[in-house]
């Protein structure tokens, strides 16, 4: 049995190696062309960092499916399940997913009026509102262009594009629900989980299932991998909500407790409200600049007392376990093990 | 020889009939689903009107290619060039293009801080900034989803998606150039025409060439139709710039001369500057609410004196004539004639 710490080391090493390859591929897929300011703004968040968890899941799922050792085959010339079809550019698909992620972050930061992201100014702060809207729009179409160039069979490319477009639609729907929830005080856990599925988990589901689609795997494999992504993606978001309350602000890259201050719904607050907690009274201010660490500490203690943080942690664990079970469609190999460990890591990571 | 007035009648009747069909198809392709506010905002501009010129060009090009009488064949079950392939949903493709157009209008109105569009409040005014960004993003992915459901052969669907994605990228690039031009006073006509090609004409080019792609026409036909779209699309925008100066505000649906007031570059101002006119001095104010009709009249008189409006009109005519020549790849038929007349209409229309 791997302990949580050695597992974290294994996962971080695996993620780190793929991150380097993805980071090298980003400027290849998205060179700074004319108009330069537009492309610089489009690349700004991508170049500022990010763990590349979604590309890592995409690349590792492909390795598990193809039954090859991790990092043993060039991602740019990856074997498909049907040998007659030839190779596909799996790295392109991985970058496409990360580009979609980056587009949503740029537009979300405008909508949520967030000034910081990955420790640097949000794009609308570093540039301006117009450029940030346009940078997001550019990444949007670029993601489709990149996904169209994997060299997959046309029928599989069409299916991949359909998943990508559908994913984007659902992300928009989820973000709309999230914005709507800020104005409501009667959101129940099921609604919250539906919102998280649309806003966050579908892109994990796309990441896990797209390699199977592009490589020509059977539908039941595609569906199981999609389900894995939905489960671990929701778990990831729930854990993110826990981290927002428990990790020091300097490690978070933003004010701890900012979700509470900004009245954002999380599984924790939804549970707490159902258990009689007046969420609006947990912190006095609605200004993240004004909240004190002591106020956040008191709020967290209160949420722990009613069991809301345990509830969120339990839910995340349940989802991860179910997601791992779905991986039974994959052969037993090192990449499969890594996908298991990645799932655990998503809810054990400290930031 | 058709006179300009009877031609306008013919074109308006043809456009009007297709507009009705397109208007019926919009709610079919884009029903108001959950979250309702998001989809209502997404539909707001589409439902507010619009001539549907791009869908009309798409539908008519298909009729010319298939050599069928205008409006004689169901657009939802349209014959392809290769009879083995079966039918395609051409109306879906037409709606997809209009949905892209609507997405760009919503985001452009935010960027340009325009309050009115088609005589109604812009989406960010009627709703709010967050909803307008998200409505545009939703239309973006929906356009791809709709285009993926035409029933075309996968290889042709992939090509169509590639054109659509590439079109969106170019529209973003063109909009970025347009924003950039507002800060510059040394833009030359070639740069302006490049910007207009990207910002406006590529969607006309997509509209004219997509039916050929989906129907499996030869590459030279696709290329010629794309060229037709680029030419008439640029002419359309140049004529739009002329109309901004010459059509009464109540017919325009916005203040006449607003481009001048807001310091927007047009082929007219770029030409005038090259001929010694101080564009910044043409109107005193930079507030569209404050400008008077007399000020706009004086500015227009000045621009006429140096020949800038004639120059723009001549350029638009030259482009339309070249575009019509490109249609020689099409069979001689009624739909072909209508595409000729549509091209003329684009630079003869009064609003």
Automatic annotation (TrEMBL), chains A, B:
GO biological process per UniProt: isoprenoid biosynthetic process
Xref: Pfam families: polyprenyl_synt (PF00348)
Keywords linked to the UniProt accession: Magnesium, Metal-binding, Transferase
Signal peptide: none
Domain of life: Archaea
Cofactor(s) demanded: Mg(2+)
GO molecular function terms listed in the Swiss-Prot or TrEMBL record: metal ion binding; prenyltransferase activity
CDD domains given in the database record: Trans_IPPS_HT (cd00685)
NCBIfam families assigned to the protein according to its UniProt record, in alphabetical order: gerfarn_diphsyn
Recorded family membership: Belongs to the FPP/GGPP synthase family.
Identification of the protein by name: Geranylgeranyl pyrophosphate synthase
Species the sequence originates in: Natronobacterium gregoryi (strain ATCC 43098 / DSM 3393 / CCM 3738 / CIP 104747 / IAM 13177 / JCM 8860 / NBRC 102187 / NCIMB 2189 / SP2)
Lineage, top ranks: Archaea, Methanobacteriati, Methanobacteriota, Stenosarchaea group, Halobacteria
């Amino acid at each position: 049995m791997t302990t949580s710490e050695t597992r974290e080391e294994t996962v971080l090493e695996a993620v780190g190696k793929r991150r380097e390859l993805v980071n090298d591929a980003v400027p290849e897929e998205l060179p700074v062309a004319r108009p330069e300011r537009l492309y610089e703004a489009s690349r700004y968040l991508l170049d500022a960092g990010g763990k590349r968890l979604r590309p890592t899941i995409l690349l590792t799922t492909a390795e598990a499916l193809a039954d090859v050792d991790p990092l043993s085959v060039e991602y740019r010339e990856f074997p498909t399940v049907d040998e007659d079809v030839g190779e596909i550019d799996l790295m392109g698909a991985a970058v496409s997913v990360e580009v979609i992620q980056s587009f949503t972050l740029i537009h979300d930061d405008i909508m949520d009026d967030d000034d910081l992201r990955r420790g640097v100014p949000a794009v609308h702060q570093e540039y301006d509102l117009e450029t940030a809207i346009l940078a997001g729009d550019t990444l949007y179409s670029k993601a489709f262009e990149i996904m169209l160039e994997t060299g997959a069979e046309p029928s599989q490319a069409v299916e991949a594009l359909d998943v990508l477009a559908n994913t984007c639609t659902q992300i928009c729907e989820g973000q709309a629900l999230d914005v709507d929830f800020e104005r409501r005080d009667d959101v129940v856990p099921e609604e919250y989980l539906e919102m998280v599925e649309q806003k966050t988990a579908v892109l994990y589901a796309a990441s896990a299932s797209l390699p199977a689609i592009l490589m020509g795997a059977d539908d039941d494999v595609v569906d199981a991998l999609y389900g894995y992504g939905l489960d671990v993606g929701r778990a990831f978001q729930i854990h993110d909500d826990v981290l927002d309350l428990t990790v020091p602000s300097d490690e978070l890259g933003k004010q701890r407790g900012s979700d509470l201050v900004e009245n954002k719904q999380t599984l924790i607050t939804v549970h707490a409200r159902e258990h009689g907690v007046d969420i609006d009274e947990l912190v006095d201010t609605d200004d993240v600049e004004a909240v004190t660490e002591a106020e956040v500490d008191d709020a967290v203690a209160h949420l722990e007392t009613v069991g809301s943080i345990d509830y969120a942690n339990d839910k995340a664990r349940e989802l991860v376990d179910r997601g791992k079970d779905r991986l039974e469609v994959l052969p037993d190999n090192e990449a499969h093990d890594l996908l298991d460990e990645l799932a655990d890591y998503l809810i054990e990571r400290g930031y």
